[in-house]
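@channel sequence for tomorrow's demo:
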Amino acid sequence: MVGDLSNAHDVSRAIAGADTVLHLVSTTLPKNSNDDPIYDVQSNVVASLHILNAMVTQKVRNIIFISSGGTVYGNPIYLPINESHPTNPLVSYGITKLAIEKYLQMYERLHGIRAITLRVSNPYGERQRVETAQGAIGVFVYNALKNIPIEIWGDGTVMRDYIYVSDVAETFVKALTYRGEHRVFNVSSGIGTTLNALIDMLEAVIGKSVERRYLPGRPFDVPVSVLCNDLGRGELGWTTLVSMPEGIARTVEWMRRELAQS
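structure tokens (generated this afternoon):
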């Protein structure tokens, strides 16, 4: 099905007959959302309200929303970051994600829509879109296999919490049947990995060194973001299964197949 989330008719048609909506759409990325915050709000917050209004009309009772564990919290006050950590996003992307979370809570209070928010850290793996430069691992793997220098913003000590895509998908499966009282969950590995360490792992997998090109740091990049996933493990009965080395190896294998076919 093809449609426009800003079109109420398309949204109503998309959710007809559903009992649960999985809201995975975002039109912006953290790195470019500040360029046009109005577009960010119109295409994400307003579009999400179209979804919620259609759910009210069609009596769809459940929604699971993918938020951003990497941007809604901003600079960490403590580590690892749990769901109670203050939310002070530095980019429009995180602000709109947070706004959508609040609207989900409002629609649950007003209309009884059961809303679960999953704040995913830094997902990676097969089918990640390299052309949008979304996600360091996808871009780094592509560049390494194509013998293109890897650009690093800053000195490579920026630390992120990477989680393999199948572990993220499993969280959605668990959330579909969850009936507890909590509404917001971090989805993460709970392990911090610097960009330098990430490239070291990649080099070990592909069996060769890659050229690293260090650039000035970006003001919107928080130095470290590692999420606590204890609540999700306890409430959803979920756990991470794929380690970073294994996940990188799977991503490299998939990327090699894709490049061989192109």
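heads up for whoever presents: The two ends are 26 Å apart (CA to CA).
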